[in-house]
From TrEMBL:
Upper lineage: Eukaryota, Viridiplantae, Streptophyta, Embryophyta, Tracheophyta
Species per Swiss-Prot/TrEMBL record: Lactuca virosa
Residues that coordinate or bind Mn(2+): K514, D538
GO molecular function term, any single one: cellulose synthase (UDP-forming) activity
Keywords on record: Acetylation, Cell membrane, Cell wall biogenesis/degradation, Cellulose biosynthesis, Glycosyltransferase, Manganese, Membrane, Metal-binding, Transferase, Transmembrane, Transmembrane helix, Zinc, Zinc-finger
Pathway: Glycan metabolism; plant cellulose biosynthesis
InterPro entries in the record: Cellulose_synth, CES_Znf_RING, Nucleotide-diphossugar_trans, Znf_RING, Znf_RING/FYVE/PHD
Pfam families with a match to the protein in the record: Cellulose_synt, zf-UDP
Binding residues for UDP-alpha-D-glucose: S336, K342, E343, D372, K513
Cellular component, GO annotation: plasma membrane
Protein name per the record: Cellulose synthase
Biological process (GO), any one: cell wall organization
Transmembrane region(s): 248-266, 278-297, 778-798, 810-828, 848-868, 889-910, 930-948, 960-980
Length: 999
C-alpha cells in the first residue's frame, strides 16, 4: 500500500472512478487489471459472457485459454502455481481423467464447501504451504473445511494505479462479480511460490507444535539453557483472579438476606392497604414492586465477579522470538468521525497519533479513519497529522513516552524527566513541543477557514472540486496517507498504515448512521489489509496505554481460551472531569462492578469503543468446537456477504491477509466497490453480519448477537488505563448522552432482538447473561415508577395524606432490617469492587437525575417510534471544551430534559414548607407522620442536589434561572403566609385546631 498516491473517488453503481493527485490534473481511471498470461505473455482474454477467463479457480494463476488447453492436452494437466489438476471448463474438450468430473461451471460453484473432505491431497498441501499468513507464521491443519483461496504471504498493497493503453470506458465493472486474476503482469507469483515450496515446511510445523506445547517436553533443561525460557513461553498468557472469598461471600449472604427481608416487606405492604389514601398507597406499592424487580435483575451479573491478569512477557517470548519473524497478529484500527466542528480535528489527530505510535510492530498496524461527513477539513487535517507523525512516532518510541497523544502528554502535570536518562531527551522534548505547537496552529487555521463554506464549494489544491461538497450525495473516497511505500518517519523507519475512508452516500439509500459506517470500514479493511483482529475507537478516545493491543492479544492469541473469544472490552476512562465528578461521567459503578460480574459469566457487554474484535466473529461465524476453527452454515456466500469476490474470499481467511500478487489498483477499485451505498442490498449486513442495525446503541445489540452464537468476551482492566476519552462535562450534554443510550435500550427491547425472547433456539446464551441483557434493555422503564415515587412525598405533604398504615413493633423491626440490608449491601459491594464511596454516591444521585429526565424521555420517544413511527434525530455530543479547566461544567444550556427534575424539585421543596407549617398549626400529634414524609422528600432533594447546582450555575446566571427561582420563592412565601397567619400563632389552646386555615 503506497502512500500519497492520490485520493481515489468513485461510484461502483455509476461506473465512475477517478484519481485526484495533490498538485496534478485528475485523470479518469482506465484499465485496472493489466492481466497477461504468465506463460506466453499474451492477453488473458474473456469468456463468451464477457468475463475475464480464469483457468485455475483454486489459485487464480493467470493463464490464457490457448495455454490452458495446451497444458490439458499435452502437458501435466496441472496449474503451474498450485499444482492442482485443471478442471474442465465449459467448451473445453474432454481429456483423460475427466470421466469422473461433472459438466458444470466451476465459477458458479467456487464457494461450494460440500465436498471439502474429498479434495485431492495436493490441494490440501498447497493450502497448508501457501495460505495467507498475514503476520503469523504458524499454520493450522484444519483448512480443508474451507474452499482453497489465493494464498501466500502478504504483500504491501500499493496505492498506484497502472494505466493501460486501452481507451477509457472499455473496461467494465461486471467482472467484479466473478473471481479475477490477482496477479499483476510484471510480477510472477509462481517464482515466489517455488522459492518457498522447496523447504521450511518441517521447520514451520515444529515451530507450531512448540507454540502449542506439544514438542520438546522431554528435553533436559540442563542440556539447553534456553529451555527455561521456552517453558515460560508455553505458560498461559493470562489468568483469572477470583475475588477473595472473605469479600464476596459476605456480600452474597447479605444479598440472600435482603431478598428474604424484601419479600416480607412487600407482603406487609400488600396486606395492609391505606383506605383513606388508596390511590397513593397503590401507586407506592407498584413502584416498590418494580424497584425490587429491577434490583434483583441488577444483582445477577454481580454474583460471580472476577479480575484478570495478563503476562505481556510471555506473549513476547511466544510470538516475538529474537531472530525470527514477528508472529503477533495484525490489527486493523477503526476511528469514526462525523462532524469536525463538533468533533475537533485536533482531538481526532491526537487519537490517530497515539495509534500510530503504539507499542506494536508497525507492519501489523493499519489505521482507518471513517469520515462519515465527507469533510474536506477532516481530510486536510489528516494530511497534516500524517506529516507530523513522521516526527512524533520516533520520538515516542525512542523515549518510551506515555501517553502517546501529544496534547495529553505535554499538558500532563508530571515529572517528565522521571526514568528518562538519555542526555538528549530534554533538548528533543523541547524541539518536539515546538513542532507540536506549530502543528496545532496549522490545524486550527484549517478549522478557522472551514467555518465559512464558499458558495461554489471547497476546491482542492489542483483545482478539482472536493467530491464531498454535498454531504448527502457524494462518491466513495479512499486516500492512503501512510503505508509501506512512502510511509517512513524522519529516521527512515517504516510507519503504520493510515487510510482515509468516506463511504458513498446517495439520496434514497438507508445509511444506518455509525453502524453503517463501521460495516463499511470492516469491508474496506478486509480488501486492503484484512487483519484478523479489529480495534474500534471513537475519535476522542486516544491510546493512554501504548501496550493496549498487546493486552488484548494475551487473550485473543492464547491457545487455550483465545479461539472462543469474540472480543476484548476495555473500560472507558475519561479526562477533564472535575474532581468530584458531579454528573457521574466516570460511570465507575458500571465499569468496575457490573462489567467484572459479567466477565465471570459469559463476558461483558460491548460498550461502543475500546474493544478489540475477532473479524470472524463479526462475519457471523459460530465459535469453534474443540480445536477447529469456527464454522458457518453452508449457503451462497455472495448472497450473505455481497457481490465482491475479493471480499468474499477474504472472509474465509481466518488468519487474515490479502492476495500477495493482487494488483494494487484492482484492490483499491474493489475497496471503492465495497463502500458503495447499495452494496448491502439483499445481503445480511446489519442483520447477522457486522454491526447490527435497528438501534442507535448498535454496540449492545452487536455484542448480544455474538453471545447468542456461543462466543464469549473478556473484560481487560490493565493497571494503566488502555484508553481515555472526552466526557460531556456540563449537565445538558450529559443528559443528552444518557438519553441516546436509554433510547437505544428501549429500541432493542421492542425489536426482534430483544433478550426477553430472542436467542433461545441455539441455547448458547447463559441464563445469567440473558438476564443481564434484559436489565440493559428494561432499565429506562424504571423512570416511570421513579417519577411517581419522587412526586409522592410532595403530594403527601401538600394533601396531609399518609401512605403507610399503623406500624407495629414487629413491622418496624423489618423496616429497620430492610434499611440496614440496603446499607450493608452497598458497603460490601464497594469493598470487593474497589469503588470509592464518593463514586458510588454520585452514581446514585445521577441515577435519580437521569431517571426522571433522560430515561423518561427515552421511554416516551421509544413508544412514539414504535406506535406512531415518529423517529428522533440525535446530534453528536460536542467534544470541545473551554481552555479553562472545567469551564463548561457551570455552563447552562436549556433543554426540555430539565423540565421534569426541575418540577420535582420545586414541588418537593414547596411540600416541605407546607408540611412543616401544617404540623405547627395542628400541634405535636402531627409531627410523627410528618417525619416519615420529610424523610422521603429530603431523599429526593438530596439526590437531585447536583442537578440543582447545575441548574443554578456558577458563572452564567441566565434569565431562565432567575425566573425559576422567582417562582420557587414566591411559592414558598405564599405558603408561609397562608399556613402561618400571625393571628393563628397568637391563638392558644383548642382554638388552634378549630381555627386552622378557615380563620
Amino acid at each position: 500500500m503506497q502512500a500519497s498516491a492520490g485520493l481515489v473517488a468513485g461510484s461502483h453503481n455509476r461506473n465512475e472512478l477517478v484519481v485526484i493527485h495533490g498538485h496534478e490534473e485528475h485523470k479518469p481511471l482506465k484499465d485496472l487489471t493489466g492481466q497477461v498470461c504468465e506463460i506466453c505473455g499474451d492477453e488473458i482474454g474473456v469468456t463468451v459472457a464477457g468475463d475475464l477467463f480464469v483457468a485455475c479457480n483454486e489459485c487464480g494463476f493467470p493463464v490464457c485459454r490457448p495455454c490452458y488447453e495446451y497444458e490439458r492436452r499435452e502437458g501435466s494437466q496441472n496449474c503451474p502455481q498450485c499444482k492442482t489438476r485443471y478442471k474442465r471448463l465449459k467448451g473445453s474438450p474432454r481429456v483423460e481423467g475427466d470421466d469422473d468430473e461433472e459438466d458444470v461451471d466451476d465459477i458458479e460453484h467456487e464457494f461450494n464447501i460440500d465436498d471439502d473432505q474429498n479434495k485431492n491431497n495436493n490441494i490440501a498441501e498447497a493450502m497448508l504451504q501457501g495460505k495467507m499468513s498475514y503476520g503469523r507464521g504458524h499454520e493450522d491443519d484444519d483448512n480443508a473445511q474451507y474452499p482453497p483461496v489465493i494464498a501466500s504471504r502478504s504483500k504491501p498493497v500499493s496505492g498506484e494505479f497502472p494505466i493501460s493503453s486501452q481507451p477509457h470506458g472499455e473496461q467494465t465493472l461486471s467482472s467484479l462479480h466473478k473471481r479475477v486474476h490477482p496477479y499483476s503482469a510484471h510480477e510472477l507469483g509462481s517464482r515466489r511460490w517455488d522459492e518457498k515450496k522447496d523447504g521450511g515446511w518441517k521447520e514451520r510445523m515444529d515451530d507450531w507444535k512448540m507454540q502449542q506445547g506439544n514438542l520438546g517436553t522431554e528435553v533436559d533443561d540442563s542440556a539447553d539453557p534456553d529451555m527455561a525460557m521456552l517453558d515460560e513461553a508455553r505458560q498461559p498468557l493470562s489468568r483469572k483472579v477470583p475475588i477473595a472469598s472473605s469479600k464476596i461471600n459476605p456480600y452474597r449472604m447479605v444479598i440472600v438476606a435482603r431478598l428474604f427481608i424484601l419479600a416480607i416487606f412487600l407482603r406487609y405492604r400488600l396486606m395492609n392497604p391505606v383506605h383513606d389514601a388508596f390511590g397513593l398507597w397503590l401507586t407506592s406499592v407498584i413502584c416498590e414492586i418494580w424497584f425490587a424487580f429491577s434490583w434483583i435483575l441488577d444483582q445477577f451479573p454481580k454474583w460471580f465477579p472476577i479480575d484478570r491478569e495478563t503476562y505481556l512477557d510471555r506473549l513476547s517470548l511466544r510470538y516475538e522470538r529474537e531472530g525470527e519473524p514477528n508472529m503477533l497478529c495484525p490489527v486493523d484500527i477503526f476511528v469514526s468521525t462525523v462532524d469536525p466542528l463538533k468533533e475537533p480535528p485536533l482531538v481526532t489527530a491526537n487519537t490517530v497519533l497515539s495509534i500510530l505510535a503504539m507499542d506494536y510492530p508497525v507492519d501489523k498496524i493499519s489505521c482507518y479513519i471513517s469520515d462519515d461527513g465527507a469533510s474536506m477539513l477532516t481530510f486536510e487535517s489528516l494530511s497534516e497529522t500524517a506529516e507530523f507523525a513522521r516526527k512524533w512516532v520516533p520520538f515516542c518510541k525512542k523515549f518510551t513516552i506515555e501517553p502517546r497523544a501529544p496534547e495529553m502528554y505535554f499538558s500532563d502535570k508530571i515529572d517528565y524527566l522521571k526514568d528518562k536518562v538519555q542526555p538528549t531527551f530534554v533538548k528533543e522534548r523541547r524541539a518536539m513541543k515546538r513542532e507540536y505547537e506549530e502543528f496545532k496552529v496549522r490545524v486550527n487555521a484549517l478549522v478557522a477557514k472551514a467555518i465559512k463554506v464558499p458558495a461554489e464549494g471547497w476546491i482542492m489544491q489542483d483545482g478539482t472540486p472536493w467530491p464531498g461538497n454535498n454531504t448527502k450525495d457524494h462518491p466513495g473516497m479512499i486516500q492512503v496517507f501512510l503505508g509501506q511505500s512512502g510511509g517512513t518517519d524522519v529516521e527512515g523507519n517504516e510507519l503504520p498504515r493510515l487510510v482515509y475512508v468516506s463511504r458513498e452516500k446517495r439520496p434514497g439509500f438507508q445509511h444506518h448512521k455509525k453502524a453503517g459506517a463501521m460495516n463499511a470500514l470492516v469491508r474496506v479493511s478486509a480488501v486492503l489489509t484484512n487483519a484478523p483482529f479489529m480495534l474500534n475507537l471513537d475519535c476522542d478516545h486516544y491510546l493512554n496505554n501504548s501496550k493496549a493491543a498487546r493486552e488484548a492479544m494475551c487473550f485473543l492469541m492464547d491457545p487455550q481460551i483465545g479461539r472462543k473469544v469474540c472480543y476484548v472490552q476495555f473500560p472507558q476512562r475519561f479526562d477533564g472531569i472535575d474532581r468530584h465528578d458531579r454528573y457521574a461521567n466516570r460511570n465507575t459503578v458500571f465499569f468496575d462492578i457490573n462489567m467484572k460480574g459479567l466477565d465471570g459469566i459469559q463476558g461483558p457487554v460491548y460498550v461502543g469503543t475500546g474493544c478489540v474484535f475477532r473479524r470472524q466473529a463479526l462475519y457471523g461465524y459460530d465459535p469453534p468446537k474443540g480445536p477447529k476453527r469456527p464454522k458457518m452454515s453452508q449457503m451462497n456466500f455472495e448472497n450473505k456477504f455481497g457481490q465482491s469476490a475479493i471480499f468474499v474470499t477474504s472472509t474465509l481467511m481466518v488468519d487474515g491477509g490479502v492476495p500477495p500478487s493482487s494488483s494494487p489498483a484492482s484492490l483499491l477499485k474493489e475497496a471503492i466497490h465495497v463502500i458503495s451505498c447499495g452494496y448491502e442490498d439483499k445481503t445480511e449486513w446489519g442483520l447477522e453480519l457486522g454491526w447490527i442495525y435497528g438501534s442507535i446503541t448498535e454496540d449492545i445489540l452487536t455484542g448480544f448477537k455474538m453471545h447468542c452464537r456461543g462466543w464469549r468476551s473478556i473484560y481487560c482492566m490493565p493497571k494503566r488505563p488502555a484508553f481515555k476519552g472526552s466526557a460531556p462535562i456540563n449537565l445538558s450534554d450529559r443528559l443528552n448522552q444518557v438519553l441516546r443510550w436509554a433510547l437505544g435500550s428501549v429500541e432493542i427491547f421492542f425489536s426482534r432482538h430483544s433478550p426477553v425472547w430472542y436467542g433461545y433456539k441455539g441455547g448458547n446464551l447463559k441464563w445469567l447473561e440473558r438476564l443481564s441483557y434484559v436489565n440493559t434493555t428494561v432499565y429506562p422503564f424504571t423512570s416511570l415508577p421513579l417519577l411517581a415515587y419522587c412526586t409522592l412525598p410532595a403530594v403527601c405533604l401538600l394533601t396531609g395524606k399518609f401512605i403507610m398504615p399503623e406500624i407495629s413493633t414487629l413491622a418496624s423491626l423489618f423496616f429497620i432490617s430492610l434499611f440496614l440490608s440496603i446499607f450493608t449491601t452497598g458497603i460490601l459491594e464497594l469493598r470487593w469492587s474497589g469503588v470509592s464511596i464518593e463514586e458510588w454516591w454520585r452514581n446514585e444521585q445521577f441515577w435519580v437525575i437521569g431517571g426522571v429526565s433522560a430515561h423518561l424521555f427515552a421511554v416516551v420517544q421509544g413508544l412514539l417510534k414504535i406506535l406512531a413511527g415518529i423517529d428522533t434525530n440525535f446530534t453528536v455530543t460536542s467534544k470541545a471544551s473551554d481552555d479553562e479547566d472545567f469551564g463548561e461544567l457551570y455552563a447552562f444550556k436549556w433543554t426540555t430534559l430539565l423540565i421534569p427534575p426541575t418540577t420535582i424539585l420545586i414541588i418537593n421543596m414547596v411540600g416541605v414548607v407546607a408540611g412543616i407549617s401544617d404540623a405547627i398549626n395542628n400541634g405535636y400529634q402531627s409531627w410523627g407522620p410528618l417525619f416519615g414524609k420529610l424523610f422521603f422528600a429530603f431523599w429526593v432533594i438530596v439526590h437531585l442536589y447536583p442537578f440543582l447546582k447545575g441548574l443554578m450555575g456558577k458563572q452564567n446566571r441566565t434569565p431562565t434561572i432567575v425566573v425559576i427561582w422567582s417562582i420557587l420563592l414566591a411559592s414558598i412565601f405564599s405558603l408561609l403566609w397562608v399556613r402561618i397567619d400571625p393571628f393563628v400563632l397568637k391563638t392558644k389552646g383548642p382554638d388552634v385546631k378549630q381555627c386552622g386555615l378557615n380563620c
